[in-house]
TrEMBL record:
Alphabetical list of PROSITE patterns matching this protein: NOL1_NOP2_SUN (PS01153), SAM_MT_RSMB_NOP (PS51686)
Protein's UniProt name: SAM-dependent MTase RsmB/NOP-type domain-containing protein
One family name in Pfam for this protein: Pre-PUA_NSUN2
Biased composition (Basic residues): 1-18
Family per record: Belongs to the class I-like SAM-binding methyltransferase superfamily. RsmB/NOP family.
Origin species: Neurospora tetrasperma (strain FGSC 2508 / ATCC MYA-4615 / P0657)
Region named Disordered: 1-34, 476-589, 794-855
Annotated GO MF terms: tRNA (cytidine-5-)-methyltransferase activity; tRNA binding
Length: 855
């Protein structure tokens, strides 16, 4: 079972607890400084003691856990086989090393698998992060963590945050929406699930049609069977739309998700309460679009975040009841909108990192009520899911603490109080939907105990709330209840505001059409919350600076109560998008997504050069510029992503990311050489379809090592012989980009990963077109080697081949920046141009041989 009591007893106090913080730290003091925050808050403690009614001993454990620092946790990600291979390294290489370390007079406890996470792919450890970072004996482990995180094989994610995706029963082929997705740790889990088994399926199909790839045995047997997602030759057909209302945070999301190189993903930037309906093709009548409904939705909503007290220690001083009260209405609106967009039979998860029922059970009950009650929406019983996850049932009765810390038992009590006052006004911020449903209402007997509450003391985690909902049938959502005072302030509906404009007229016609043709019933417009509530919806707790670069090296930060999106106005009707507003944030201009015709000259030229099989779809190539002509990069998307980007163009939908960069333009040494080289992100998708003429197969571990360490190894003047098994093949290969297909010969169990990497052949040398961090991560992972990379192009070329090296340097890869400014910021810089540049400089005599380090 979990790490709760046992290990801590054994260790006499455990990590991060009071003992660790206050005890004499001997020689290691510099590694363990903690901010002095007084971990007390009378109202917080009073409210939860009263609400949870835990037995005394458990109550003490509850508060003690909330006062301790949280364990570090991480998850192995990517395809399951790959994730298991990286996990294996942790177990065989690093854990034995860690168990030899002593710290603070005790043997360090090594990372342990999270007991309830499938396949042992999530881990946690009690050693504080700053000790791992700075205490020298941990350095190899720290390098492993950093390097695998930077290339996307490890995700530093809080343990409780891993729960929601696991309860979604997500299968390949499904369409999924993550409504409040930034910084993206859960979205990454969802995307991995969409791609489960894909690589094995594709290889199987290619093999059937006589392709030259080796089949692989997938760890994911069910998903790897072709019938798991058969309709596109085994390619994943599902889709994730990851959305966040905050523009800057949505770029964190892009950064996080881009590492998964998925053509099946779109990032949008909308207020989830008004998420637009998206058009999709209607095979029966192409002139009338259908509207997308999702198989799965995650609403991991903004919340007051008191479940994160262990991580966000300032909450101890900042906690106030108004934060949760101020978010209730937004949360209900997000959940109602989610349920509207779900397919009948579809499933969704509502989650928060708050323990407050006003953000949890009351939101679930209020949304179900607005959506027609338990006949339409079922709370799914998950008792048999994740059996090793300890949890408490959701509450059926609860009390609400108002802004002034007065606690109310029922709405009736609030109304009675209002009647007894002179002005008859209810205490600010309280609304009926916050309270348990009264006897006789359709939701009075909702099985709210099926909601799941996870408390810090149960398995040494953060606090979390999760509910799984299933939509049983379409419904017409009831309008939000409006108090008379607010009715007067109800804003004009967005379409009225824009009335008279061409766009508004067009949209109105379209909405009317959509309403006629769709059997989906449309929600009435909710109204704005009271002005006062709006003002106070702003988070009372510190927010992570939105400009901060996210999760590549550090755990992605989930901030509680992030800046609420623009105040919700109205959920859109089917077919409706809010009238396009001027983008508020600077730099938020997005380049359009334009698809290239399959018979475009560039696409034909690429297909011809790489001898791409006609089985690979040529009608999903996209570029990001208004001219519609490929200039720098060509992206690839799945068919559904293409349909959505194309059919919703010009409708004001804020798409901000989609597609995997597949080809990048560069200068080429001769007219016969294709100017579009394959980008490493695109390789896993494309390589199986590339003709044997442009493939080099590598089987030996040592040959790959040479290519990883040496940048620009020479091949001219007989030096190709030094490239062992691939020497002759590269000697005979025509110039330009090709696929290096790594198909291990099976002699070495540590070298069994199949890969496809872009390789560039020029007159003089060869080069793997990989970012430096990828090279270094592979060297560490496969060879446990931290040898600095060596640029072979520098020293040896300089004296005798100056002019030629300069030319080659110019011809070598000039990696393009991505086309959108936002992407350019986070994109991995391909290492070759720098090397090429150095070649040039070296040839001119202004730099000497320089070794790159892997630090
Ligand atoms: C709890 S965080 C989500 C964490 C995320 N699911 C993850 O796993 O990394 C809530 C997110 O909701 C976003 N948000 C706040 N109000 C929103 C709204 N009205 N619509 C959509 N997103 C919103 C915030 O910007 C924040 O990124």
């Amino acid at each position: 079972m979990g790490r709760g009591g046992n290990f801590r007893k054994g260790r006499g106090g455990g990590r991060g607890g009071k003992r660790n913080r206050d005890d004499n730290r001997g020689g290691h003091q510099p590694y363990t400084r903690y901010p002095e925050v007084v971990k007390q808050n009378e109202r917080l403690e009073g409210y939860y003691n009263d609400l949870l009614q835990l037995p005394e001993e458990e109550r003490e454990q509850f508060w003690a856990a909330l006062k301790r620092e949280l364990p570090n946790s991480f998850r192995f990600c990517g395809s399951k086989g790959h994730a298991l291979a990286v996990k294996n390294l942790l177990q065989t290489r690093y854990i034995p090393e860690i168990t030899r370390i002593t710290y603070d007079g005790a043997v360090v406890e090594p990372p342990q698998p999270v007991p309830w996470y499938p396949d042992g792919l999530a881990w946690w450890m009690t050693t504080p992060k700053n000790v791992i970072r700075k205490f020298p004996p941990f350095s190899a482990f720290q390098k492993f963590l950093v390097s695998e995180t930077s290339v996307g094989n490890i995700s530093r994610q809080e343990v409780v945050s891993m729960i929601p995706p696991l309860l979604m029963d997500l299968r390949p082929g499904m369409t999924v929406l993550d409504m409040c997705a930034a910084p993206g740790s859960k979205a990454a889990q969802l995307l991995e699930m969409i791609h489960r088994g894909e690589e094995a399926r594709i290889r199987h199909v290619i093999k059937q049609f006589g392709g030259s790839v080796d089949e692989i045995k997938s760890a994911d047997d069910d998903a790897a069977r072709l019938d798991a997602d058969p309709s596109d030759d085994g390619r994943a057909t599902g889709m994730l739309i990851a959305n966040d209302a905050d523009y800057k945070r949505s770029h964190m999301l892009i950064h996080q998700l881009k590492r998964l190189s998925s053509p099946n993903m779109i990032v949008t930037n909308h207020d989830a309460t008004m998420y637009p309906s998206l058009r999709i093709p209607n095979p029966e009548d192409p002139s009338k679009p259908n509207y997308l409904k999702f198989d799965r939705i995650l609403a991991d909503v903004p919340c007051s975040g008191d479940g994160t007290l262990r991580k966000n220690v300032n909450l101890w001083k900042d906690w106030a009841p108004a934060a949760a009260l101020g978010l209730h209405l937004t949360q209900v609106r997000i959940l109602v909108r989610a349920l509207q967009m779900l397919k009948p039979g579809g499933r969704m998860v509502y989650s928060t990192c708050s323990m407050n029922p006003v953000e949890n059970e009351s939101v679930v009950a209020a949304a179900i009520e607005r959506c027609g009650g338990p006949d339409k929406i079922e709370i799914v019983d998950c008792a048999d899911q994740l059996p090793l996850l300890q949890r408490k049932p959701g509450m059926r009765k609860w009390k609400i603490m108002d802004k002034s810390a007065r606690v109310w038992n029922s709405w009736q009590e609030v109304e009675d109080h209002a009647k007894s006052t002179e002005d008859g006004i209810t205490p600010s911020r309280l609304v009926e939907s916050m309270f348990p449903r009264p006897e006789g209402s359709i939701c009075a007997d909702l099985p709210l105990e099926r909601c799941m509450r996870v408390y810090a003391h149960q398995q040494d985690t953060g606090g979390f709330f999760i509910t799984v909902l299933q939509k049983k049938a379409e419904f017409k959502a009831k309008p939000e209840e409006v108090r008379p005072k607010e009715k007067k302030q109800a804003p004009k509906r967005p379409l009225e505001e824009a009335e008279g404009t061409e766009e508004a007229k067009k949209q109105k016609t379209e909405n009317d059409e959509a309403a006629k043709t769709e059997d989906v019933v449309i929600e009435e417009a909710p109204v704005e919350p009271a002005e006062e509530a709006k003002a106070e919806e702003v988070a009372p707790v510190e927010e992570t600076p939105a400009t901060e670069e996210p999760a590549a090296k550090e755990e992605a930060t989930e901030t509680p109560a992030e800046t609420p999106a623009e105040t919700p106005k109205e959920a859109p009707k089917e077919g409706e998008v809010q009238p396009e507003r001027k983008q508020k944030q600077q730099g938020s201009y997005e380049e359009p997504f334009k698809y290239l015709p399959a018979d475009h000259e560039v696409i034909k030229n690429i297909a011809d050069f790489y001898k791409i099989s006609p089985r690979f779809p040529a009608d999903r190539y996209m570029i990001r510029n208004a001219t519609g002509e490929p200039a720098k990069a060509i992206y690839y998307t799945s068919a559904l992503v293409r349909d959505i980007l194309v059919m919703n163009e010009g409708r004001g939908v804020k798409f901000i990311h989609g597609g995997v960069k597949m080809y990048v333009k560069q200068d080429a040494p001769s007219a016969e050489v294709c100017r579009w080289r394959i980008q490493s992100e695109g390789m896993p998708i494309l390589h199986g379809y590339v003709g044997a003429e442009r493939v080099v197969v590598l089987k030996k571990k040592e040959t790959l090592k040479k290519l990883l360490i040496e940048m620009f190894p020479k091949i001219a003047n007989g030096e190709w012989e030094k490239l062992d098994e691939i020497g002759e093949r590269v000697r005979d290969l025509a110039l330009g980009c090709c696929v290096l297909r790594v198909e291990p010969d099976g002699d070495d169990e540590e070298f069994n990963e199949h890969m496809a990497l872009p390789l560039w052949k020029s007159f003089q040398s060869l080069n793997l077109m990989l970012p430096k961090e990828d090279r270094s991560a592979m060297l560490l992972r496969i060879y446990n080697d931290t040898t600095p990379l060596i640029n072979m192009g520098i020293k040896r070329d300089a004296p005798k081949e100056g002019a030629e090296a300069k030319k080659e340097g110019e011809e070598e890869v000039k990696a393009e920046e991505t086309e959108t400014p936002a992407e350019a910021k986070t994109d991995v810089t391909v290492e070759a141009p720098a090397a090429a540049e150095e070649q040039v400089k070296d040839a001119e005599g202004d730099v000497s041989m320089k070794e790159e380090t892997t630090a």
